[in-house]
Amino acid sequence: MKITAPKGTRDILPSDMYKWHAAQKAFADVCHTYGYEEIRIPTFEDTNLFQRGVGDTTDVVQKEMYTFEDKGGRSITLRPEGTAGVVRSYIENGMMSLPGPVRMFYDITAFRYENVQKGRYREFHQFGLESFGSAGPAIDVEIISIVDVFFRKMGMDDVKLHINSIGCPSCRAKYNEALKDHFRPHLDTMCADCRNRFDRNPLRMIDCKVDADKDCVKSAPRLIDYLCDECREHFEGLKKGLDEIGIGYEIDPNIVRGLDYYTRTVFEFVSENVGTQGTICGGGRYDGLVESLGGPSTPGIGFAMGVERFLMEAEARGIEFKNPHYVQIYLAGMSEAASSLIAKTCHDLRLKGIGCEQDLMGRSFRAQMKYAGKSGIPYMAVIGDDEIASGEIRVKCMEDGSETVVKIGDLAGFLSGKQ
To answer: Which of 104, 182, 262, 309 meets the CB 3.0–4.6 Å disulfide criterion with 119?
Structure first.
């Protein structure tokens, strides 16, 4: 029986990895310029972390988590997102004692059992970052600007920023009552999930994928109209900060995000190229999450970006990534003695950080030449008895056919100048 990859997973082949490496490096470089340092968190966590952190009324917790019992009888969940794990680490490792704001970024795999579609998988990858300790809108502006700088660096200048505020628990309580009054007459026509959420978390009804196009959802009250004075002031500060650094935005009152921990600022970067679900990156503020997971009251904000969707967007735009040639030269041998010298030469080159290849298949000299021509390796050289005797080889540039006589002992220096 042929065994294939599980549904919702995919192999990232060597022919595509250079694109991933380019995106990973660019994201890390941008984060570093803002003072963010990388964190790595476990692939699986105690299930309670996500039930308490993400929210047990969300689709992620109710429908999409990969949860199992380990051999010790503990309930374990493959992480469906990165924020909860980073917050757990922030608390567990006493990072609140560090000078604020505490800034971290990550590059992770995550897992959600959901419908497989273009750019959306059950095992997927995320770039993300989190910042703790700063309560004002200036950190919101910084977080958003990081995404903006990354997109611009990658050639995506026109991805659109949508922003909203979903307030604090105080103003959201008033809004939830207004939502209930609005939806109550329509409950019988709404989906089972919405009827479930009516009492537990009516805000989630606006984000419903089934009822989204219904008039009662479209005409629902806007949370932004129910903000308290402090939340409204924070939102005005966000808009002012974005205006000051020249980042354009659109206020989108329908953004509520899919996770329960968000407060105040929420945002999305949206493109038309990735289909009807055009969000490439989303995030926001979560001022109560650290406290809800057992830490001190600490403001926080972050975002996550689906790497698959980002690369799909790059492909749709025709953005090309540089494919570095790690292997610089192919050394073809004409005798057993030459093969021994080639093995030693390759080892010496690799010790100096220069990539090279030699025949490992027992190919004939003619087959080695044919392989070198098809491999895409920039340079090649032939070593036979004459070259062993003279200590010199002819290094051929495969692009233009030119040749340079180089002493075998000087080969590393010659190739270093070509990188």
So the answer is: 309
Encode pLDDT of 353-386 as tens digits.
999 999 999 999 999 999 999 999 999 999 999 9
pLDDT, tens digit, 9 for 90 and up, residues 256-288:
765 667 889 999 999 877 543 588 999 999 999
Q: pTM of the entire structure? A: 0.88
Q: Decide the pairing of beta strands 379-383 and 327-333.
A: parallel
CATH number of the domain located at residue range(s) 14-168+228-316 in this protein: 3.30.930.10
CA neighbor of 37 nearest in space, from 97, 102, 83, 88 = 102
> What 3-state DSSP class applies to 56?
coil
| Residue 401 token pair | 């056919």
Positive/negative CA dihedral, 369, 375, 381, 386: negative
**Local confidence band at 213 (pLDDT 50, 70, 90 cut-offs):** low
pLDDT value at residue 205: 77
Six token digits for residue 19: 């694109």
Domain layout of the chain by residue ranges: 14-168+228-316, 327-416
Amino acid at 273: N
Strand 37-38 and strand 102-111: the pairing is parallel
Residue 121 near residue 6, CB atoms below 8 Å: no
Name the packing angle between helices 307-316 and 14-33 (round to 10°): 110
Q: Which CATH superfamily is domain 327-416 in?
A: Anticodon-binding domain (3.40.50.800)
Place of tokens 């970067």: 269
The DSSP element (H or E) to which 67 belongs, if any, is strand 67-69
Q: Which long-range contacts (CB under 8 A, 24 or more apart) does 96-102 make?
A: 96/132, 96/133, 96/295, 96/296, 96/298, 100/132, 100/133, 100/134, 101/131, 101/132, 101/133, 101/134, 101/139, 102/131, 102/132, 102/133
